[in-house]
Amino acid sequence: MNYHHRRKLQKANLLLLLTATLLFGQATFAQDGKTVFQTNCASCHNPYKRATGPALFGAFDRWGGNEANMKAWIKNPTAYAEKDDYAKKLLNEYSPTVMTAFSNLSDAELAAVIKYIKELPPPPTDNAPTAGGTAAPAQDNTLLFGVLTLILAVIGLILLQVNANLKKLTDDKEGIDRGEPIPFYRNKTYLATAIIGLFVVGGYLTVQGAIGLGRNKNYQPEQPIYYSHKVHAGINQINCLYCHGGAQEGKHANIPSVNVCMNCHMQINEYAGKEKLYREDGSEVNGTAEIQKLYKYAGWDATARKYTGEGKPIEWIKIHNLPDHVYFNHSQHVKAGKVQCQTCHGEITNMGEVKQFAELSMGWCVNCHRETQVQFKENGFYSIYEKFHKDLKEGKLDSTKGITVEKIGGTECQKCHY
Amino acid sequence: MEQKKYWQSFTELNQDSESFKKLAKDEFREELPFEMDDKGLLDAKTPRRDFLKFLGFSTAAATLAASCEVPVKKAVPFLNKPEDIVPGVANWYATSYINDGEVIPVLAKVRDGRPIKLEGNDTAFTKGGTTAKVQASVLGLYDIARLRFPLEDGKEAPSYDAIDKKIAAALAGVGSKQIAILTSTVNSPSLAAVVAEFTAKYPTAKHIMYDAVSYSGLLDANMNSFGKAAIPSYRLDKAKTVVSIGADFLGTWLSPVEFSKQYAAGRRVTDKSLDMSKHIQFESYLSLTGANADERYTHRPSQTGAVILNLYKALGGQVAAPALNDKKLEAGIAQAAAALSANKGAAVVVCGSNDMYAQIVVNEINVLIGAYGATIDWGTTVNYRLGSDTQMNKLIEDMNAGNVGALLVYGANPVYNHPAADKFAAGLKKVGLTVSFNERVDETTAQCKYALPAPHFLESWGDAEPKSGYISFVQPTIAPLFKTRAFGTSLLKWAGSATPDYETYFKNYWITKLGGQEAFDATLRDGVIAPAEAAAGTGSFNSSFTSEAISKLNAAKPGGKTEVVFYESVAIGDGKMANNPWLQELPDPITRATWDNYAMISKKMADELGIAVDDDYEVEVKKPVIKVKIGNKELSLPILVIPGMHPDVMAIAVGYGRGGDLTKEEDKEKAIQTIGRAAAGTGVNVYPFVSFNGTSNDYYASVSSYEKTGDKYTIAYVQTHNVYEDREEVVREISVKELREKPETLQEESKKLREDFGEDFRNEGSLYDPKLNERPGIHWGMSIDLNTCTGCAACVVACTAENNVPVVGKKQVAKYHEMHWLRIDRYYAANRKDQFDDVNVLFQPMMCQHCDNAPCENVCPVAATNHSSEGLNQMTYNRCIGTRYCANNCPFKVRRFNWLDFTGADSFPDNQKPLVEEGGMDAIVLDMNDDLTRMVLNPDVTVRSRGVIEKCSFCVQRLQEGKLKAKKESRPLKDGEVKTACMQACPTDAIVFGNYNDKESRIYKIRNEEQKNRNFYSLEQLHVLPNVSYLAKVRNTDRHVGVKEEHHAEEGAEKKEAGKEAVPSGH
Predict the structure, then answer these.
(1) Is B128 within the bounds of a domain?
(2) What is the DSSP string of B929-998?
(3) Is residue B172 exposed (0-12), middle (13-18) or buried (19+ Cβ within 10 Å)?
(4) Which pLDDT belongs to residue A88?
(5) Number of Cβ pairs closer than 8 Å across A and B?
(6) Is B737 in the same domain as B884?
(7) What architecture is domain A2-122?
(8) Per 3-state DSSP, what percentage of chain A is helix, strand, and coil (rounded to 5)?
(9) Residue of chain B with shortest Cα separation from A384
(10) Mean pLDDT by 10 residues, chain B (1067 residues)
(11) Which residues from chain B sit within 8 angstroms of residue A331, using beta carbons?
């Protein structure tokens, strides 16, 4: 049975390799066309969805497979439409928007982009998982090693048993009577070893499990609105403190109230970023629809451009939860300690929906307090530490290591627990 | 001669007694929950089964806890965030604590929309002082027994509008009958204007003020002597001699906060100046003020007039005075007269009597000693109490005669607290329209047709004029929790005013008066308006009533063999705030009892009753019950033997026994719902025993007989809870004479210790690496001046509010389980063991001493308590496993253990209710864990769960906050910037806290410069190096106070040795 299992795994590996090669091969082939598409077409065309212009999947067929006609259309749509009915129909359908003329594109480039469009894979459906997704767990070798260990242990056991049997045979031959052999499942040594082994493994797992209790690293719940920090703080470079002003004033960084969102979103009513937004499960996010959700919460009538007064607060799912017996103050770290938000919250500028980056365990806090230097010379508060200042000057204290948070008592219990 | 010693309980007087040994040994008097004999757990009857049971339970519990999924928490920001609110950052609003006539300007700390703590307003006439009641009043806001909607005939009324229509019609139909507006003292100028508007509309309306504990006699006396029914301002800080005749001015009389501030100013001594005022007290029972006096003399309450006359005579007044027949008292009067004469123009006599004639003669005395214009100021009169006994009695007559058509009651509760309550209740039935505006369905409201609850002061707009010219504003700190409406709004609506809303009326009133919105806003921000300081006014004295007063006093009929005094207790006062669990659980400063009233009796009386005041007396919480017959009425209540009582006087506190007779279960249940669980049925009501003497109410009576009933009753009192074993030198006291002659007397012992320990005093005898004793940045320290500490207990309640200290209920207090982080120990000192009538009393606030060489820290097996580099003894609750070794090893007995789940913080929801049902815990604990009540919790302080130790943290959350503020502003911490809750609350500034490393700080200067001679550390010989230091109590007397010299010599050698080796084990 074990062997069978292993074969299955190998198969999976092979499959993974195969798919990867195929995908990669395809990618090189269509490379140029894709680039051309993304630089010139993507702002108006989506492969599978009607955007400013029509979806391009199947466009080749719609044009009757006539590459030359397509080329001519792309180079100058208005001029070409005069002599082609299908083109005329297209123009009317999307009026008043007219497709930009791409006279700058070379024939080769046009050919590449048409080829790219022609070979676009059919649109992904919800129940068809991607190839990478299913094969991914096989990359973790722990199970493999575990199984191997188990097999070796079984072989070892069998060998021991064989050894014992052989010994008994020789003993019998030599006439030494050692009595009936005890079956291995009643052998006390084996049992003891097994129990100790179980105890150690079980204990280890229990302790690890217990330590992990209540810790939620990588916690990334789905929020009532898909809010992308990547778009706001990353691409648009909005300062963290613009929204989370509480971080420099008090304990809580505070999720901004809806009126803060509306400061900008009164103007910005659609998502027009180049970057597409995807959820963790791979599904795409319609940014504009998410903004509409915000309007609903804010009670903002986007067409009349006024508040209806029927707003309600957004119930965000809290991600970073500290136990009640911990006192944590954002302003202590952000304002007094000048710690970057990213130190604890990770690469927030690259996160779609926020994920808990740090463990938020006591060990994690304490480690940072051990290593981080306080603003010892810059902050006037620390002027009272006369001895440390003197020692630093006289070189009694390592100035490269500086005065860490720990040095001024930052790892004492009642700095965080009271 | 037997040496003098300091003792807390009678038991301590005989330390060889079995009781004392048991008391000291059984520190944690707990029955463990399994079968035990003396052999220990393993040899018990069923050790294996018990072991398995506990193991099984722990495993099951752990599995249960582990299998719980992490709950999804939500973070819901505002839809539209108000500009001035940052979640997690407190806002402060200037407002005023108002309880009848008591007005104390405060700043309310509002966290995330909830007021959670009140602190004194430094800029006001109270100079930042508060009382226990002020500190506790914030809990009153979240009282679950408050009336939540208007009532009509005891049922919820559909709306205020509907009621308004009915009442307006009823008022219109009153005709020529009187409309009585009965309130407790109201000193709000705008409300007075509202009442005037109402009276203009209804000409038969009359405003009558009535105080439960009346000052009518004083007001009437001043009306006669000075032509003004008012009370002048007393300036005790200007007095060199203060003589008080029964006035408990530090505890309950008139304005204790102001008087405490002034008194402390006159009492504060330094090494350079030992000048202090002399305080002589004449009284019948041991009051807080009497406990602080330099000289104290007791007399019968019926002798008050005689004492005053004798004093007047001794001062040179040409009067006949009745004989006192008490040598000691006579000597006292001579002494007082001499002290007063020696300080003419800087002396004052205050009298707590409510007898008009007595007060007239006191006025005469004050004229004689030149008090007016010096220590008594007629330029500023005070409005704390304006009630008139005669007017109130007239109202009751009118009501019974059917002359009153409508009665509007606001703040007053005569059915409970009027001596003629029955008569009042009978009259009430004859009034056509009765409306109550009280905050709950109290005794009076229950008998009114309509109840229109007024909001709590923290939800209200308003103002007060506690002293003439001094205005204090009230502004809401939270939107009204319930469907309440301001009293003023109702009056305005019914009067058909153009502004039928008190909030607008109030704002208009002051905007007009102050000259604009800007000035109004500024006043609202500051909270107070104070007139410019003026010279004290003398008033125009008219002595024409004196002779009548003197003859009346001379003719006063003598009291019986035994007399009884009715007094206000510091915590409960007149009983209006009785439903406040913080106040109920606050140990009385003198008796140290909680949750009850009782008869304080003398040792002599106990002997007569056959109650043995022996070694067991105070260890045993069950006290004998006596039946007292006063006139034709009787009452039964337990006794407490209190040294310092007049031998033939017993004292009983008013303010208890709310809800009347609650022997029937349904009555009790109803009272719990309407009046509140903490107040209903707690103690007995003695207001019915107060009598009217023709001009005013007398708060004393003659006892016809008293006898033991044979019953016993548990009084939960805490004085015996923390025993210092046989250690002395916990507290120190000295007379000013001795201090002057030998300034360094108190330092001798300390000097010897320093010599013994050698140069490296701090590190010698310490288990710690000297490096750990370095305090590189801040070294927190606290100094408590026992001389200015009056024992008023404001700090205790402030600490409770700030640090989420749980209420445990009476049953648990009786089991030594009270949780206060800060207690005020009361010590008696007497030269002879059996001297019970003449004792010195000392108060010592005792909290964690934050020892730098702490014995608790090195016995903790899990390092849950350890030391910080700033000198704090840190307690980490989530690490504590509850071995209680630390509490055992603490020489000061300041660590408190959570024996039960008092807070509901545990993850097991069912570990409170079954206990309450079984009777192990009081239901009040559940009330304290109600969602509404829990709104008072300070979110910066962990709510502790069962099984952990807790103790004073020096308000570490405030220290951290202060440090953070300094860091954010990139500057060093300023001295006095961070204050602990106790320091902030203290009305006498006895507590100083700061950074000892800062050479410019007050704490450094007190210990090393200003107060070197009086500075001492409690139990210094143990070498635990406390960070709390005390300043010895000084008595302005020629008597010897403090421990005898011989005693020092005798014990000195022994102490030295003990100090050397006893440190870590702390045996």
Answers:
(1) no
(2) TSTTGGGGS-TTSPPP-TT-EE---SSHHHHHHHHHHHHHTTSPPPTTSS--HHHHH-TT--EEEEETT-
(3) exposed
(4) 82
(5) 154
(6) yes
(7) Orthogonal Bundle (1.10)
(8) 55, 5, 40
(9) B777
(10) 63 71 68 54 64 76 64 88 87 92 92 92 89 93 93 89 90 88 92 92 91 91 89 91 92 92 92 90 92 91 90 86 86 91 91 90 90 89 90 92 91 91 91 92 91 93 91 93 92 88 92 91 91 83 84 83 92 91 93 91 88 78 90 90 90 90 86 90 90 88 89 86 70 86 86 83 79 86 93 93 93 89 88 67 92 91 91 91 90 90 77 82 89 92 91 93 92 91 92 92 92 90 91 87 48 38 35
(11) 964, 968
B957 touches chain A (CB under 8 A): yes
Task: Quickly list H helices, B742-807.
Answer: 748-757, 794-802
Contacts of B78 in chain A (CB under 8 A): 257-259, 313
Q: Is B992 helix (H, G, I), strand (E, B) or coil?
A: strand
CB contact under 8 A, B72 and A221: yes
> Do you find a cis peptide bond into A96, omega within 30 degrees of 0?
yes
Residues of B in contact with A256 (CB under 8 A): 77, 81
Average pLDDT over residues A319-340: 90
Coil vs helix vs strand at B610: coil
Same domain, B519 and B631: no
Q: How far apart are CA B815 and CA B922, in angstroms?
A: 12
Q: How far is B332 from chain A (nearest CA, A)?
A: 52
Using a CB-CB cut-off of 8 Å, the residues of chain A touching B1000 are none
The CATH number linked to B903 is 3.30.70.20
Instruction: Give the CATH number for residue B705.
Output: 2.40.40.20
pTM above 0.95, yes or no: no
CA distance A162 to A171: 14
A 64-103 → B contacts, CB under 8 A: none
Domain around B430: 151-214+389-471+478-529
Same structural domain for residues B342 and B419? Answer: no
Cβ–Cβ gap B78/A251 under 8 Å: no
Contact B530, B124 (CB under 8 A): yes
Angle at B810 between CA B887 and CA B953, to 5 degrees: 35
**What single string gives the DSSP state of each residue in B1019-1041?**
TGGG----SEEEE-EEE-SSS--
Instruction: Confirm or reject contact between B91 and chain A (CB < 8 A).
Output: no
Per-domain boundaries in chain A: 2-122, 229-350, 362-415
Q: What is the pLDDT of residues A163-176, one digit of tens each?
A: 888 888 888 888 77
Nearest-angstrom CA–CA distance, B305 and B301:
9
Task: Read off the tokens for B365.
Answer: 């005395």
Cβ contact B964–A412 (<8 Å): no
The predicted structure's pLDDT at residue A133:
38
For residues B981 and B801, give the distance between their C-alpha atoms in angstroms, rounded to a whole number: 9
Facing B968 at nearest CB: one of A245, A331, A384: A331
Residues linked to residue B464 through DSSP beta bridges, in sequence order: B472
Characterize the bridge pairing of strands B450-451 and B433-436. Answer: parallel
Same domain, B248 and B210: no
Q: Can you give the CATH number for the domain in which B224 is found?
A: 3.40.228.10
Whether B939 maps to a domain, the answer reads: yes
| Token pair listed for A199 | 């105890």
pLDDT of residue B1042: 63
Q: Is residue B298 domain-shared with residue B195, that is, in the same domain?
A: no
The token pair at B757 is 């320990």
